[in-house]
Amino acid sequence: QVQLEESGGGLVQTGGSLSLSCAPSGRTFSTYAMGWFRQAPGKEREFVAVITWSENNKYYGDWVKGRFTISRDNANNTVYLQMNSLKPEDTAVYYCAGKNNPFRGSPAYSHIYDYWGQGTQVTVSS
After folding, report:
1. Hey, is 90 helix, strand or coil?
2. What does the buried/exposed string (b/e) look like for 104-116 if buried means 16 or more CB atoms within 10 Å of the residue's CB?
3. Residue 84 contacts by C-beta under 8 Å, 6 or more apart in sequence?
4. How many other C-beta atoms can be found within 10 angstroms of the C-beta atom of residue 58?
5. Cα-based angle 95, 38, 107 (whole degrees, multiple of 5)
6. pLDDT by residue (tens digit) across 37-74?
7. Any idea what DSSP says for residue 117?
8. Amino acid 28: pLDDT
9. What confidence tens digit (pLDDT) does each residue in 108-118 have?
10. Distance CA 60, CA 84 (A)
11. Is 73 exposed, middle or buried (0-12, 13-18, 19+ CB in 10 A)?
């Protein structure tokens, strides 16, 4: 089945930037949307952003909109997350997620997604 792989995490100072990438590595890929969640130690998984594949609609979590930008590359089914003005509170494991079917409601709930990557660590130092 589809396997999503994230890359681009690392250590950055407060105010810095990172760009994350997510690409499928399975033999087939059929999806309606791909996006990003994050999870800090001891906290629940939090919605970051998602983009629909054919419509190019973008949705952002309340706390990251304006600092983070999601984009896509149709040629290789890759989704990106450009993160600017990073804060220590952004420190988390960032997970890529894919959804096969259109959204029935809010895209912000992790349980509605079908595929997940292993995550990439983002650490923002103060």
Report:
1. helix
2. eeebbeeeebebb
3. 17, 67, 68, 69
4. 17
5. 85
6. 999 999 999 999 999 988 899 999 988 779 999 999 88
7. B
8. 60
9. 999 999 999 99
10. 14
11. exposed
